[in-house]
Write a structure and sequence with these properties.
This reaction introduces a second double bond into the aromatic ring system. It comes from Effusibacillus consociatus. Homotetramer. InterPro entries: Chorismate_synth, Chorismate_synth_AroC_sf, Chorismate_synthase_CS. By secondary structure, the protein is α+β, with helices and mostly antiparallel strands. The chain has a single domain, classed as Chorismate synthase, AroC fold, CATH 3.60.150. The protein is built from 10 helices and 18 strands. The strands form 6 sheets. A 5-stranded antiparallel sheet has the order 8-7-9-16-11. A hairpin with a 6-residue loop joins strand 17 and strand 18.
Length: 386
């Protein structure tokens, strides 16, 4: 079964991901992975770390001559900033005498809870792994997943729908057009007027030493019927998507289709009526369900939105307590973004691609690309004849 593990600290030597369960003979492009890593680092409001790191992936196993072998694939992203942290983050030996031990937890981070859970006297042992720097590995594994999906004409897009108090509003056009416009935007919005307003807001918030969150939407096109299952809660496609997106740093809410708005409407304005024609087969004229009914994909585009809280590291520090002295203190400042919601949208794409790929392989098999394609074609033929 398709699964992954990631490892690495924010200022350690490297970030590592291992993917198990990819089918054999699947084309894998390092260039495509690097492009997604580059996209994660873009966006107006990003911090100093993005000027240090230029993420590039190395594949250490599982691929030969550009195609998977069916064995675990290892992905490695080096941390360029490691050279400045070798003594403070040394793998072996004793801590240097002048090591600055972090004892002041920052509100909104894993610092306090993580230190208590793992009995750490130095909060750096917590914050290094909890850091959003580790989303680079999520983007890398998601890029591999989306390369599998593209073999079957399944594509993943994203755009920002809200940033701070500003709603982008309705945007016209197909999702491909909306995403293309968002891709040209510094803040991943498809509305140029709102882009200028958002950029000015980010500038204002930066001067105030504050931060902003936002809501991004991910849309997946080309998804066939039948991914996921109604049989068990953990096999439902919407359950998997919500859980996986909540696993991204700073994500505090997820909705699918109409989401929370469905609770505010009568049923006649929520559920998608079913039609049939010889040319189209079964089809819908609305997509309030966001492409999922009963935990199963229904042939409509998958539509999911996630809310990212404001970055909790502020240049105008919040109050905290020193864990060693118990004295009140203003929380310390690590390098930080003012707004990372556009980057979070790229991470969201990656995670959604991963979940769709997982459910896709469960449905159609996973030993080789050829076997999957045969199963997929047979299923699509059966569906068209029903």
């Amino acid at each position: 079964m398709l699964r992954y593990l990631t490892a690495g600290e924010s200022h350690g030597p490297q970030l590592t991901a291992i993917i198990e369960g990819l089918p054999a003979n699947m084309p894998v492009s390092v260039e495509k992975i690097n492009h997604q890593l580059w996209r994660r680092q873009q966006g107006f409001g990003r911090g100093g770390r993005m000027r240090i790191e230029t993420d590039q992936v190395q594949i250490g196993s599982g691929v030969r001559f550009g195609k998977t072998l069916g064995t675990p694939v290892t992905l490695v992203v080096d941390n360029r900033d490691w050279k400045n942290w070798q003594q403070r983050m040394a793998i072996e030996g004793e801590p240097p005498a002048d090591l600055e031990v972090v004892t002041k937890p920052r509100p909104g981070h894993a610092d306090l809870a993580g230190s208590l859970k793992y009995n750490q006297q130095d909060i750096r042992n917590v914050l290094e792994r909890a850091s959003a720097r580790n989303t680079a590995t999520l983007v890398a594994i998601g890029s591999v997943a989306r390369q599998l999906l593209e073999e079957f004409n399944i594509h993943v897009y994203s755009h920002i729908v809200e940033l701070g108090p500003i709603k982008v509003g309705p945007v016209e056009g197909a999702i491909e057009e909306i995403a293309a416009r968002a891709e040209q935007s510094q803040v991943r919005v498809a509305n140029p007027e709102k882009e200028e307003e958002i950029i000015e807001l980010i500038k204002k918030v930066r001067k105030e030493g504050n931060s902003l969150g936002g809501i991004f939407e991910v849309v997946v096109t080309g998804v066939p019927y039948g991914l996921g299952s109604y049989s068990m809660p953990d096999r439902k496609l919407d359950s998997r998507l919500a859980g996986a997106l909540m696993g991204i740093q700073a994500i505090k809410g997820v909705e699918i289709g109409l989401g929370f708005d469905a609770a505010r409407r009568p049923g006649s304005e929520v559920h998608d009526e079913i039609f049939y024609s010889q040319e189209q087969g079964y089809y819908r004229e609305t997509n309030g369900a966001g492409g999922i009914e009963g935990g199963i994909s229904n042939g409509q585009p998958i539509v999911v939105r996630a809310a990212m809280k404001p970055i909790p590291t502020l240049y105008k520090p919040l109050r905290s307590v020193d864990m060693e002295t118990k004295e009140a203190y203003e929380a310390s400042i690590e390098r930080s973004d003012v707004c990372a919601a556009p980057a979070a949208a790229v991470v969201g794409e990656a995670i959604v691609a991963w979940v769709i790929a997982l459910s896709f392989l469960e449905k159609f098999g996973w030993d080789s690309l050829e076997e999957i394609r045969a199963n997929y074609n047979n299923f699509m033929k059966m569906v068209s004849e029903r």
